Amino acid sequence: MHTAGRSTTGPSNSVSTAPRVVPLLVTLALALSLALSLALAPAPSALAQTPTAPITISGGLRFVAPDDVLIEVSGIPTARRFLDTVELLPRRSGIDVVNELGFDAYLYGLAEVPQSWPEAVLDAQVIAARSYAWRSIQRGTFRDYDICATVACQVFRGAEILLGTNGDRWRDAVDRTSGQVLMSDGEPILARYFSTSGGRTYGNEEVFESSGPRPYLLAIADPYDALSPLHRWEVRFTRDEFDAILAEGRTLAATVPVARVERLGPADDPKAEVRVTGQDGTSVTVRAIVLRDFLSTRAVELFPDRFPSLRPDGTRPLPSTIPTTRYDIELSDTEVVLHGIGWGHGVGMGQWGAHARALDGHSAEEILAAYYGGLTPVVPAELPTRIRAGMGAARLGDDELLTVRLTSPTRVTTTDGRALSTSLGTWRVTRTGTRLRVLPPLGDGQPLALSATATFPGLTWGPGATLGTIHPGDGDATDLRITVNKPVQLRMEIATAGGAEGGGGGGEAGAQVLLTRELGIAEAGVHWVRWFHDDADGDRVPAGRYQVRLIGVDQAGVEAGEASRDVVLR
């Protein structure tokens, strides 16, 4: 859900063709943590582990991945995996992260309504979001990107939405409405939307006075909003809690202990004020929005086990201590109770109202017309092809480096176009003043070298075992060890060996490959992988002789890997 309608500008003007995410993304992202879960601390090896020298960059760093390939970035609370292009920019706040990608691929990453909702409301939400994003590109508000990734613009989560539950339903809505936007006077509209109206939306000028009235952002009755669990809510403070919170305020502290609290204006007036009077007669008047923000912040700080309290359906907490400015206040001898309606700024499309309309059989076009002054979607001749989403500054702990993990050969350049590498593996970045200090993966740029695959019969981690400590196993599995000198895409291959009861003519001509398994990225060092004596169908292989090979493929497509001695299964 976005609130204030900030806008930005962007480059292009033709219909976008965003890449479609395929299940391989999930495989590449998750396989490594499973397959390499037995990784040991690197042991001495004959392979040269060539250190990589740090690089200092005065501008920014750019990672450009192939279609449908993930780039994994640390330090972003709302997203970890991204498609297309990631930029790192040294800024006063730290290292800013920007995801540049195709226009519809950006829409794939929005988290504005639950993807399980009916198709009509998903379609309406996509069309509104596409209109809002296009307008943001045109406006050019931000320095480094076109649109922010928070509720101040639109909530963008990178590739996390597509990879989550019901991500395919949201993707289908983007594809189904491809190119559709809402326009007024030849321009994309300021398509504001929010969660819950409480029964009435606002006109734009009532809430966003500086941007004035809009013919498509009118106040309307919204009875369908009654479906929302936040249509009506209440928050209860004990008198002691309320006094303790107000005592933290610079001006409100003078009213403690509190005798009266009065709202000066109706509950649905966003400009209304609240007067707080202390027992000694001291009065302080503040805007309802100021009191809301103050209570929401300080209540959580002082009483984290109490606030936010549960919403009316009891299933989860309220989105904040006080969700909106639309509340009345009731005092008793023991409590201060806020009775409120809705959640969000209240202008444009109410998402819960749209949900209820969809359940009642309304189409996406009818939903949009109801909330945007009768406008219906059109397909203009030109739309942006690319957009830059600002993810904000990466949040890192003391002495912590931002990491960028490349799961497929990815082009790395500076933001001014200087090529650094085509790379795999983990890049580590920190900021020094106005520059980035960058450490490429160990072995980056070196010729590929792998040790032969070594096999061990069923190594077992015993109680109290530490890295590097192994114990004899029971033979139900075979553990494989390999050393690599640089990041590779690792693959396991199991084949019959010469004379094997399982058939085949050995690792040479006539050998039968029983299993090929992609394991993901292995960084430079020693790695262990476990084979559970299964074939490609998951069935146990028969007794016999087998050859096992761990194969590494580097960023240039060079492949290496020497098979083990025969593994004999009885």
Shape, principal axes of CA atoms:
elongated
**What is the residue-averaged pLDDT?**
87
Instruction: Indicate the radius of gyration in whole angstroms.
Output: 29 Å
Number of domains: 3
Describe the protein:
The protein has 570 residues and is α+β, with helices and mostly antiparallel strands. The chain folds into 3 domains: 208 residues, no CATH class; 110 residues, no CATH class; 116 residues, Immunoglobulin-like (Sandwich). It has 10 helices and 29 strands. The strands form 7 sheets. Strands 1, 2, 3, 4, 5, 6, 7, 18, 19, 20 and 21 form an 11-stranded mixed beta sheet that branches. Strands 24, 25, 27, 28 and 29 form a 5-stranded antiparallel beta sheet that branches. A 3-stranded antiparallel beta sheet has the order 11-16-15. A hairpin with a 2-residue loop joins β20 and β21. The longest helix has 21 residues.
Notable features of this structure?
570 residues, alpha+beta, Immunoglobulin-like, 3 domains, 11-stranded mixed sheet, 5-stranded antiparallel sheet, 29 strands
Summarize the structure.
The chain has 570 residues and is α+β, with helices and mostly antiparallel strands. The chain is built from ten helices and 29 strands. Strand 5 and strand 6 (94-102) form a beta hairpin.
